[in-house]
Amino acid sequence: MKIRELIHYPDTYYLVMVRDYTDMLWSSYNFWCKREYDGTNCDYSKWAMPGVHQRSPELFHDLVQADKNHTAGVIQPFWHPMEKPCINAGGYYSEYISMHLYSRKLNNYTIVVASEELDMYPLRVAQRVAKIINYNIDSIDLSTFNKVRVNTQDNKGTNSLISTDKYLPGRYNISHYQPLLPASRTMINKCWHEDCIALSKIPPYYKYTACHPEFNNNATATTAGMNVLVLSEIMNP
What we know:
two-stranded parallel ribbon
């Protein structure tokens, strides 16, 4: 109840984390288990475990394809609100922001941060957020954020770290370190295209190449085959 009260305070700020939807869906598929899909060997941690649960790029593609085609009777491994991974993708981020925040006239209290920007430029994100909430972070050492990632890949949990030089974007032990199929990315990009466009119109105006291929040459990312975020195009809110 206390948290419920706090989030309705007049001066409460709302931090909304966004990420390329295709990468998030693939990550979620490899990270979480679900009893309806995986059976009783999905314990209460709800973490997908190598050697216990089955994951692969091909199975993933078939699951999303089944949802796209409205195939009946297919049990999906994704948790709400991604349980319909293609059908619900069209307004995944923008509808949440619009319906739950902007509709309550909380535009000036909503801070949207892309996971990709936080990953690459944590200090810049921290400074932007601190400026919006009027909080001085000059005495805080944020250098560690450039050296480690928390709760990533097989290092699950808020107290589990992995050094950035060992991080393999889009590769997971449970799916034998195989990358997402290019055909899956093409399909899911179409599923969330409308939301991707809508997100690019919300401050700070993130432009993902999933729906802005014209920025491919200016994109800030190095992982081949992945959608990337055009950080050079970001405008300050």
